[in-house]
Amino acid sequence: MRYPLMATCAVLLAGCAATPEYYDTNAAVDANPLCVSRPDRPGEPVSRDCERVQGASISSERRGEPVDFRKRRDD
User: Residue 49's Cα: distance from chain center in Å?
Assistant: First the structure.
């Protein structure tokens, strides 16, 4: 009897957890023809469009439309 209750609680709590969003700009840099030539010297500035960035961000903010729980008169 405990196992189904614990499993149900785990599933419900998993929906409340924050989900990470991954980002990677490698494909965009490879597709950009202006990024083919790289700087010759170390420390030379690189265009912001040609920087390769990878990472993840965690946000607990839920994205979506709000649910309307009000009853309509015709229901």
Answer: 20
